[in-house]
Amino acid sequence: MKNKLKKCIKENWLLIFFIVIQSIIYCVVGANKQYLHIDEAYSFGLANYDKVEFQNNYDFFNVWHDKEYYEDYLSVQKEEIGNYKPVYENQKNDVHPPLYYLILRIAMEINYGHFSKWIGIAVNVLIYAFVTIFMYVILSKLLKEEKNAKKKATVLAFISSITLASISNVVYIRMYALLTLEILIALLLHIKLLEKKKENLPLLVAIGITVIAGALTHYYYFLIIFILYLIFMTKYIKEKRIKEGIYYTVTIFMSLGISVIIFPYMLQHMFFGYRGKGVIDNFKNTNELVAYFKEHLKNLNYYGFNGTLFFIILFIIGMLIYKKGKLQLDKEQKDIIKIILIPSIFFFLISAIGSPWRVLRYIVPVCSLMFVIVIYFLYKLLVSITNEKITNIIIIILFCIMAITPSVFNLEPELLYQDRKEFVKEITKKSYLPTVYFYNPQVGSFLDDIYIFSMIDKSYISKDMEYTESDVQKIFENQDISKGIIVFINHNEDEIIQIVKKALNLSQCEHLKKLTACNVYYLANN
Length: 526
Description:
alpha/beta; 6-stranded mixed beta sheet; 24 helices; 6% strand
């Protein structure tokens, strides 16, 4: 066993080295993440708390709380260790299946009693080590006829894991990194199935387990399985391999059945929940379909190719015209490309159109796959026109351009919230000041900003009402306002600011930051 491990390390030292490098990159970027997106707050809360909506607590509104009150939503307490019921119950009442939240919950128990963004980021860093490994294995099969195939597969797998899309996927604390891994595993297992000429029980069992895991992670995973199933059943029927087709069909549908048994609420979520209905409504809105696609194509260019996609596509089109549309690929290469590309494009199109917002996370699970296929086509076309040495130089230059474009064009991974760095520092310095959020639940969600409230010593969420000076005085009764106060407001800002200033005899008003759901002010005497 020890000798096998040494041999594995020796043979894959470059891959291991790159995984260490990418993990360092992820940690550096993670250290610069300044805030939590609302869905990231939900990730921690849904994995931990005893209800979906924090603001449904009976004592949430109109009560002064310390920061531990909010941190409790974001972290596991000692007495809660081993209680995984909230993981299942919360997902039943929300819109996603529970596997990712279970993994996150287990990780959160390591650092019980305290909230840290690093728990979620660390889970994704570990997942992406396996993403790179599985991408390497897939690329090794695609490039196996090439000179120095393993080294090329290693480098390309690494580059695909450090694009802005991949880095965003790691530092965004949601289930999309896990979904990315499960898609890669499914594709690799189907590539292996392609190599088999008769039914293979261990491989089918592995496919079944992956289907269950993917179905319990995100419903978009069904898009990949659906297309793979069509590809393979078409192949089995065409080649009259009916017995293999039956075994494969039984595997897929049995796995889906087990998934439904484990989490039957997925049927409600997909067909009757508001997200499922939202997807259907998007497809009905035919006037916007092209616009949806264009926005996600921009996201693919911006994040998946660091802004170089359209340049690469034009270069490929030019070479195809020069080659008169001919690109020599053997049957095995074509089959592997088909297994990678068709599900990826289908996933991209359906998620781009069906997603509620035109943001990266809905397409990010296939960004790396589309990246490696485009680079592969570019490589094969270059080799067919020139020699391998020149081709390698051109590809290296392209990778260097991709490495510097984020700095040149001020591109950055999604949802780092770099613009809030100074604000977080300022609030940290003023965390001792009494803080009130004049909050209208109809305007925005409190979870947009729970992260900052977990840093403030004393805070008060005032539910929307018709404020008078006496109301404000009552709120701040027994609070030390001699050094000022912090005010969050998400409605009627000017009116409320004036009432607060008069009620507390405060003359100074400094706007600190416009956040997603509200504005933040510092009020004090001059």
